[in-house]
Amino acid sequence: MAQLNNQNFSFHLTDWNCLYRFLVRVSYLEIYNEEVRDLLSKNQNVHLEIKERPDVGVYVKDLSTYVVNNAEDMERIMTMGNKNSKVLPFIFTLNMVTINFDRNYQDLWVLPK
User: Fold this and answer.
1) What is the domain extent for residue 49?
2) Are 27 and 64 in contact (CB under 8 A)?
3) For residues 9 and 73, what is the distance between their CA atoms, to the nearest angstrom?
4) pTM score, two decimals?
5) Residue 18, by phi and psi: left (phi above 0), alpha (psi -120 to 50) or beta?
6) What percent of the chain has pLDDT over 70?
7) Is residue 108, in this structure, part of any structural domain at all?
8) Predicted confidence band of residue 24 (pLDDT cuts 50, 70, 90)
9) Cβ atoms 52, 60 nearer than 8 A
10) pLDDT at residue number 18
């Protein structure tokens, strides 16, 4: 099963001119017998669809995501998903958006769009 510690979740990026903030979202899914299940969903009988769009690429429609603030949040979500997993392998996805501020907290840019 997946495990995480605080050393893996360290985002301390500052420099003289800029501050960085992060929005970290996670999702957890399982693919078995050509069926995709959201391991974080309350209804484990729902099978999701894999889709593709030119602007987004490949994605899983209606896959739940959770915002995490630290390693403990991620560990809690992994544990919840592990309880719903029937087989291996599973896919735990972390999506991070970076916001760059100047020292006056003016938004300079956001990645990815």
Assistant:
1) 19-102
2) yes
3) 11
4) 0.67
5) beta
6) 70
7) no
8) confident
9) no
10) 55
Q: Which residue has the tokens 């599973």?
A: 90
Q: Establish if 46 belongs to a structural domain.
A: yes
Question: Is the CB of residue 97 less than 8 Å from the CB of residue 23?
Answer: yes
Q: Does residue 111 lie in a domain region?
A: no
DSSP string, the chain: -----GGGG----B-SSEEEEEEEEEEEEEEETTEEEETT-S-TT--B-EEEETTTEEEETT---EEE-SHHHHHHHHHHHHHH--SS-EEEEEEEEEEEEETT--EEEEE--
* Residue 3, in any domain of the structure: no
Residue 100's CB is within 10 A of a number of other CB atoms, namely: 16
Cβ proximity of 65 and 59 under 8 Å:
no
Overall number of domains in the chain: 1
CA distance 86 to 88: 7
